[in-house]
Amino acid sequence: MLLILFFSSCKYKQENEFAHDKADTILIVYLTGAVETVSRIDCKSMANNDYYKKMIADTLRISHNDFSSIRCFLRNKRTRKDESPCNSRMYIKLDSFSVCIGDLYCACNLDDRVVDINLETIYFIKCKSGYYNYFSKEQLLDDKCIKKFGIPKDYKYQRSAPNVKRKECVKLILIEEV
What DSSP element (H or E) covers 19? Predict the structure, then answer.
């Protein structure tokens, strides 16, 4: 009887630790570089894509303030009915909160409802995730966020080697530094 109690309490503790760890991470998946598509990529397709699910994620530690800013956006998003959905390029998930950022400075949820977001938040998330590193400086100069806020201080162009297929997708887990 004592052994059963011991093993069940360990299992309970492991499940709670896993849930806690997951709550302290933000998953970000994005397509790299300028991606031309024939049809729109909806948020649900991006979230359920098997290609990125098989990838091993890179891990990036960010400050408590930066993590809190992204978490606050994800948890306090409001939807609008008046606009057409985004052509998704980035998928972001925290707990049960998911949102996609599109190519034209918009965001939408898994139901393709447009979510309130400002340019500063888009720029902030793209900077923290390394999204801009997959664009040349020339390509960045056409970006509305870059025009307003400038090229990120830690920008480093991730050029593909000649005759090597460029990385199509990045899977990243943001972890809050404590």
Answer: helix 2-23
